[in-house]
Inverse folding.
């Protein structure tokens, strides 16, 4: 048992320290554990930044992706849909729910979730959109991405709480 094996099983750093200290009767400190797990992550990502690696991996797996960056190469808009979610959406596109969190993630950016409803009244996730603001233009972009995924289909109902600029974008 070593740090790399434990990290691969998504064991938290504090638990890695406890396990190693118990097994080897040693006194690893958290700085050692964090430094080693950071090095392992860097190797796993092949030297790429986590966001870049995620985009490449999602594309490899067949996700629908659209991403926009600002002039400092920071993500301002990211739209992700799993291929199976798209298949379900194209079969059951009649009702789409759109909801936004309020900047509860690490980067303090709103996260928009698109949800579909199946004929047996079960919800399914359509996709996730990370946005940098809640302006009319941003929500127009979100709706345009949904339209691209839907192709020639149009939902009968788009359910939302009209957060931010979404209400204006729907008009």
């Amino acid at each position: 048992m070593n740090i790399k094996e434990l990290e691969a099983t998504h064991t938290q750093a504090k638990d890695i320290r406890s396990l190693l200290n118990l097994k080897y009767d040693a006194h690893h400190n958290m700085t050692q554990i964090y430094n080693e797990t950071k090095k392992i992550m860097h190797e796993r990502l092949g030297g790429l930044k986590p966001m870049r690696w995620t985009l490449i991996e999602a594309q490899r797996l067949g996700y629908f992706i659209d991403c926009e960056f600002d002039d400092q190469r920071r993500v301002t808009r990211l739209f992700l849909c799993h291929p199976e979610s798209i298949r379900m959406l194209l079969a059951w596109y009649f009702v789409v729910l759109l909801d936004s969190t309020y900047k509860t993630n690490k980067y303090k950016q709103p996260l928009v979730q698109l949800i579909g409803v199946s004929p047996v009244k079960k919800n399914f996730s359509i996709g996730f959109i990370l946005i940098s603001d809640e302006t009319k233009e941003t929500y127009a972009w979100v709706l345009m991405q949904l339209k691209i995924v839907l192709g020639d289909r149009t939902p009968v109902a788009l359910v939302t709480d009209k957060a931010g600029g979404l209400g204006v974008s729907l008009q």
In short: The chain has two domains: 3-44, 50-170. Strands lie at 64-69, 75-81, 95-100, 111-117, 123-131, 157-160.
